[in-house]
Design goal:
Blueprint: E1 3-7, E2 10-13, E3 18-25, E4 34-39, E5 45-51, E6 58-60, E7 68-73, E8 78-83, E9 92-97, E10 109-114
């Protein structure tokens, strides 16, 4: 079955960086577009970024453009999210997902950004 395991979250100061990873298994990773979503306390699930199966096409939410970079290593079946110039409003649980709605996602990794 599909298994997604996020890691790399933690605490950072505003302006700092974090790199999230998502180890995938149980499906043909390279055949799937992969996405990152986030959920802040008391708010709904919010799409952050998507990358196509081959890794050549990426899309970002406006609020992360120019600061976050999504990438993938299909040989390692791992998805990444490099987050730079972090802002306090980035504080959320971050999930990787194997579908466009974020239904098939992992347990998440917490990111906390302090000002």
């Amino acid at each position: 079955q599909v298994q997604l395991a996020e890691s790399g979250g933690g605490s950072a100061q505003a302006g700092g960086s974090l790199r999230l990873s998502c180890a995938a298994s149980g499906f043909t990773f390279s055949s799937y577009d992969m996405s990152w979503f986030r959920q802040a306390p008391g708010k709904g699930l919010e799409w952050v970024s998507t990358i196509n199966g081959g890794g050549a096409v990426t899309h970002y939410a406006d609020f992360v453009k120019g600061r976050f970079t999504i990438s993938r290593d299909n040989a390692k079946t791992t998805l990444y999210l490099q987050m730079n110039t972090l802002k306090p409003e980035a504080t959320a649980m971050y999930y990787c997902a194997a579908d466009a709605l974020g239904v098939t996602r992992g347990q998440g990794t917490q990111v906390t950004v302090s000002s």
